[in-house]
Write the C-alpha cells for this entry.
Amino acid sequence: MIEVRDLHRHFGGFRAVDGASLRIETGSITGLVGPNGAGKTTLFNVIAGALPPTSGQVIMDGEDITGLPPHELFHKGLLRTFQIAHEFSSMTCRENLMMVPGGQSGESIWNAWIGRSRIAREEAELLKKADDVLDFLTISHLKDERAGNLSGGQKKLLELGRTMMVDAKIVFLDEVGAGVNRTLLNTIGDAILRLNRERGYTFCMIEHDMEFIGRLCDPVIVMAEGHVLAEGTIDEIKANEQVIEAYLGTGLKNKEAVS
C-alpha cells in the first residue's frame, strides 16, 4: 500500500530522515520503533504531508503522493493521529466525530437557505454513524461529555474514532499509548485489532511500549539515525544485536532484564 523510497528530510545540516526506505503492506499493522531522535515522527510527518521531503518518494497504491498536502491525502484515505490528541475541547465527543467528514451540505451558506431538508438528513446520518463509532470504541457513555474533560486515554480513543468517520485506507498512529493507563491501552489495542480484522484497516504505528507493539504488530521496523536499521517479527527484533546496540544500553535487552 505504502512504499517509501530513499526518503530524506533535512533541517539545515541535520538529517532527521536520512535515506529511509520501507514498505507498509495492505492489511498489516506495522510497528515503527527506535530510540528517541531516530526520525520516526519526522518520517510520519513527511508521509502524511505535514512536511515536504528534501528528496525521495512516497508511493501509495502505485500513485506518487510525495509532498501532497494533508487535506488531499485525507481524501485519498491516508490519515494520522498525534502523540498529543487534537480534540475540539468545548464540543462533545459526538460533535467531535460529526465534524470530521468534509463536503457537508451545511458548510454552504446557499444550502443553509434552500437545502435545509438535505442538511437535516445528512446530520441524522452523521449522528447515527458517530453513535455507532462511540459504541464500537466502548465509550458511548461519553457521547455528550465535552472532549476537553476526557482523560488522555479517552482522548486517544476519540481520535481513533475520528478516523472511523471517513473511509480510511491507512492510519498512522503516533504513540497512541503515550500517557495511557494499562486498562485503556488494552481497550485501544482491542479497537485497533478489530478495525484491522473486521474492517480492513491498515495501520502503521510509532510506539515505545514493546509489549503493546508485540501484541499488535507484524512486521516491526526499527529506525536509527534517520534510516531503517532492521525489520522482522517482534522476536527477531528483540534478538537483533544491531537493534540492541542502537538503544545504547537503555533498549530491549535491559528492558527484558528488568521485567
About this structure: The first strand starts at residue 2 and ends at 11. Residues 255-259 have pLDDT under 50 and may be disordered. Strands lie at 2-11, 14-24, 29-33, 55-60, 63-64, 78-80, 170-174, 202-206, 220-224, 227-232.
